[in-house]
Amino acid sequence: GFRFDTNDFIAAIKLKEDRDISIRALNQLDWRIFLSAAALLFSSFIGFDSIAQAGGEARNPGWTLPRAILLAIFSVGSFYILFTAAVYHTVPWSFVAEEALVRDITAPGLLGIVLPAEISAAIIAGAAIALINDLPAMLLSVSRLMFAWAADGIFPSSIASIHPGRKTPVVALCVAGIMSSIGVLGSHWAGDFFLGIDIMVTSMMVNFLLMCVTLVMIPKINPDIAQKIVVFKNRLVQSFIGWIGIILLLGFLTIHTFKDLTSEVSAWYFRSTPVYLIVMTIASLIFILQYANLKNQDVNISERFTRLPQE
Prior knowledge:
Distance between the termini: 48 Å
Structural class: mainly alpha
Radius of gyration: 23 Å
Number of helices: 12
Oligomer: single chain
Helix content: 55-70%
Shape: globular
Mean pLDDT: 84
């Protein structure tokens, strides 16, 4: 992208598609659009909420996992900033905005107008390989969550079934794969890939918000685990990080939800917020029923949920 500029792009699209485009100046910054984009960037950092599930297999996880997360945020963020700068160095922002209103666009597709075909193919191949590499990790994290819920008794016990030969949580893996496939197919049939992205962004922001609330409340709820925090041991620093996260995430979540509910769609189910709320309502009902069942069985709730299970 840095090899070309907007004039090269305008000339190339005129040659390839016989289209005349012009560069519009940005008169003023629309903070609603800017903050909406900032909220959407949460989808770029998927996985940090599930990586802690590997803590049992990591050496000194209380110290190594936070360092790994900070390193990943810095490296991934730096790459995204560099890549975005390269794209917009060549492709006019106004062209990107106009195209995004009528179709799903990709950076390789935009840069392919000026890049040689073999380089565009290499970029797409790299992106495909990266996405394929994400699938096992995502299935692993989601199936582990479901397995843990079932083992704790707040999800149907059948989810915790182990394959007799392979010793894998086969039911949890299959259910996670089926649910993911339904989400992909639903977004495809809706004709909007970003419907799935918006649902994911909402769920991630709620998830991170609950993590920040936990950081603020954990000394009162579970002091034993709170004392084991290795990074930023100072309680004032922990509270500051937690409250800053709560405020920022509530702001981003409000903006993201408002943008979703005020967007023009042909049917209500093309909005991410109602779909997310329906799924969370069903999940909450399952939790309430299972939790009540545990109480009826005289299970020591405090003992079960305040102590980490043995690995």
